[in-house]
Amino acid sequence: MSIEVKNLVKIFDEKRVIDDISFTVHDSETLAIVGFSGSGKSTILKLICGLLQPDSGEIITSEGDTAMVFQYSALFDSLNVADNISFALRERKDLRKKFKENDLKEIVAQKLELVGLKGIENKFPAELSGGMQKRVSFARAIVTEPNSILYDEPTSGLDPISSTLIEDYIVRLKEETKAASIVVTHQMSTITRTADRVIMLYDGKIVFEGTPEELLRQETPYTKQFVTASLEGPMKMIA
Amino acid sequence: MRALQKYYKQSATYKIFSGIFALLEDFLTTLGQITIKGAQLLKSLLTARIDKQELIFQCERFGISSLPITLSIVGMTSIIVSSQVANEMVKQGGGHFVGLLMTMLIVREVGSIMSGFAIISMIGSSMASELATMRVTEQIDAIKVLQVNPVEYLFVPRVLSGILMMPVIVILASVVGVLAGAVATAMTTDLSFRAYFDSAWLGVYMKDLSVSLLKAVTFGGTISLISCTCGYYASGGAKGVGLATTKAVVWSFVAIVIWDMIFSIIFFF
After folding, report:
1. What is the pLDDT of residues A92-139, one digit of tens each?
2. Do B148 and A91 lie within an 8 Å CB cutoff?
């Protein structure tokens, strides 16, 4: 077990955005969380990585770090790529004495190679394309060898080819790090190419749990509506 | 009952009171945020490792980049005051005290408060908008997820730079102010430079200089702390960045005027 979520509840302005949700993600497994915008997908990630506190329920993660890849990369724009990737190693109290300057250079080069971006250490985030920024944020996320990695809409805003590349790296990182991964996404290609299991959220609750193949079979009204992107069905969009 | 509630919510009384309560809530929230971050900052200042490179960068930004505007503002304020006061004093037979008055005014008040205002508009607003942008682009969330203390990383070098650089700025601004006052006096009256400076030295006491430096340290720390806090707690997109910057500027202005009043009451009453 790497991430276990038990009876999680999060309330914003008297609305139960997350309403008694439980699931488990094991090591070397990727769970995709899907659902309409505003269904609480990103909130779950923020709860797991500690950016938000739950109103009730429990989140248990294995010892070690939980890394997060943000929707818009969230790279530090005043730092170059190398400093972005080595940020935690330089600034974290428990890590900064462990590494010398040469070690950091080597680690940065290794991580950049892993995400296919060798030799861009001195560039600044503004000089990179959206897809490259995303991959740098992958490198930054895995620099502390995390036990779990959370991806918040990793392919949003990218062209189909860049999306495919990012999806390949999600799979590759899972294989390299053996981390438990959660991918919040709307895109079917990301679900089918990266996820081992899928949960679908609606109105703060899990309305479907299964494999990507089961999702595509459209056996429930919820999966049918989601896969066919239909306005007709049990899920109502709040305009 | 609901109809009554709806009617009540549309009434002018409800709107006025809800507006007042919203303002009060915002005031108390901001005060609480500044207090909390101030306490965390004190703890971090005592325990955190200070990144010298970042501190030097922030000092350069706080002190050097703001210096031309700060010195110009203090110099011009001094010219405005002396050109109006010197002529009158000379006419009334008090020409020998122009230097004394100007020096006392600049060292005690103009040097520190006008530098404070210049720093707020240049550096405070820039700090607030920088941190607010980091907040709305999730960079501060990324710092937290990477388990780096945001107060240590963002607040400590900025507030320290304010504490260290503000006295330097105030000293330089005061020197420029006194000199500008001398030039303006010489240009608007028959009083010589020598006569101006003869009395100028009489207006400077050790206590005045000490209080001026103490004020500078307090202003520098306060401006940086308020600006960083307002930026740190920004929310929303571009509008949120704008609101945070405005809030930082307004709160810093009010705070340094309050500090100035407190210093005056304590040291000069």
Report:
1. 988 888 888 888 999 999 999 988 898 899 999 999 998 899 999 999
2. yes
**Closest by alpha carbon to B232, among B40, B58, B82, B63?**
B40
> What ipTM score was computed for the predicted complex, to two decimals?
0.90
Tell me how many domains chain B contains. Answer: 1
Query: Which pTM value belongs to this model?
Result: 0.88
Q: Please indicate, yes or no, if residue B231 is contained in any of the structural domains.
A: yes
pLDDT per residue as tens digits for the range B136-172: 999 999 999 999 999 999 999 999 999 999 999 999 9
Q: Is residue B26 part of a domain?
A: no
Q: Which residue of A has its CA nearest to B152?
A: A91
A51/B144 Cβ within 8 A? yes
Domain residues of chain A, as ranges? 1-42+50-64+147-229, 77-144
Query: Is B5 within the bounds of a domain?
Result: no
Please, which residues have CB within 8 angstroms of residue B15's CB and are 6 or more apart in sequence?
none
Taking a contact as any Cβ pair under 8 Å apart, which residues of chain B between 107 and 166 contact chain A? 134, 137-139, 141-142, 144-149, 153
Type of residue numbered A62: S
Give the CATH fold of the A1-42+50-64+147-229 domain.
Rossmann fold (3.40.50)
Pairwise CA distance, residues A92 & B48, whole Å: 11
Angle at A186 between CA A181 and CA A189, to 5 degrees: 75
- The domain in which residue B133 lies consists of 51-268
Across the interface, whether the CB atoms of A74 and B147 are under 8 A apart is answered no
Using the Cβ of A45 and the Cβ atoms of chain B, whether some distance falls under 8 Å is answered with no
- Smallest Cβ–Cβ distance between A92 and the set B138, B139, B146 belongs to B146
**Which of A45, A48, A68 is best to mutate for the B interface (most B CBs within 10 A)?**
A68
In a domain, B32, yes or no: no
| Residue A76 in contact with partner chain B when CB distance is under 8 A | yes
Q: Is residue B159 within 8 Å of B228, Cβ to Cβ? A: yes
Sheet holding A15-25, edge to edge: A15-25, A3-12, A56-61
